[in-house]
């Protein structure tokens, strides 16, 4: 079993401009590719875990999301990083429309996407890491039994509940490899 570095998307990989659904809105955060290459060299899988309630709200479709994800994937590949998985939740219990109005098990803070990835990729969750920008990311990590929950400052304004749930607060994903090397 390998450990994984789980990454939230908006605010961690790309600047959170709010409901990002197109390539021209997708702005990679400085250092993200170098950081992901370092995770791979450190023996981690790299898996994206993202709530996409914009789908539930009818702001963009699952096809739009898949297209953007493919483009994101190619960008990572161009920089020498093969992502091991991308998991997304298209639901919202209150704001969802039609089939997407579901009180699901996947939307963070629930751990459903993490448990699915664990099952698909045989991940050692106890040795894994979650990098997120919100309290709900930290909650999902803890609910899945992940030992290291890292809060980064590149996304939503850092809130007290996020800080209190995080194992460490770092400026950005670029700082995670060094922290991990020192905190095995
Ligand atoms: Mg986020
Ligand atoms: Zn869901």
TrEMBL record:
Q: Which positions does UniProt annotate for Mg(2+) binding?
A: 8, 10, 133-134
Q: Where does substrate bind?
A: 8-10, 16-19, 50-53, 107-108, 134
Domain of life from the UniProt record: Bacteria
What cofactors are annotated for this protein?
A: Zn(2+); Mg(2+)
- EC number(s) of the enzyme? 3.1.3.-
Q: Where is the active site?
A: 8 (nucleophile), 10 (proton donor)
Q: Which GO terms describe its cellular component?
A: cytoplasm
Give the GO molecular function terms.
metal ion binding; phosphatase activity
Q: Point out the annotated site residues (description: Contributes to substrate recognition).
A: 107
**Has keyword Hydrolase?**
yes
Broad class of enzyme this protein falls into? hydrolase
Residues reported in the UniProt entry to bind Zn(2+): 89, 91, 104, 106
Q: Which Pfam families did the record assign?
A: Hydrolase_like
Q: Would the keyword Oxidoreductase turn up in this protein's UniProt record? A: no
Tell me which UniProt keywords the record has, alphabetically.
Carbohydrate metabolism, Cytoplasm, Hydrolase, Magnesium, Metal-binding, Zinc
* Family to which the UniProt record says this protein belongs: Belongs to the gmhB family.
One of the protein's GO biological processes: carbohydrate metabolic process
**Name of this chain's protein:** D,D-heptose 1,7-bisphosphate phosphatase
> Where is it localised?
Cytoplasm
Residues at the site labelled Stabilizes the phosphoryl group = 50, 108
InterPro entries from the xrefs? HAD-like_sf, HAD-SF_hydro_IIIA, HAD_sf, Heptose_bisP_phosphatase, Histidinol-phos
Coiled coil regions in record: none
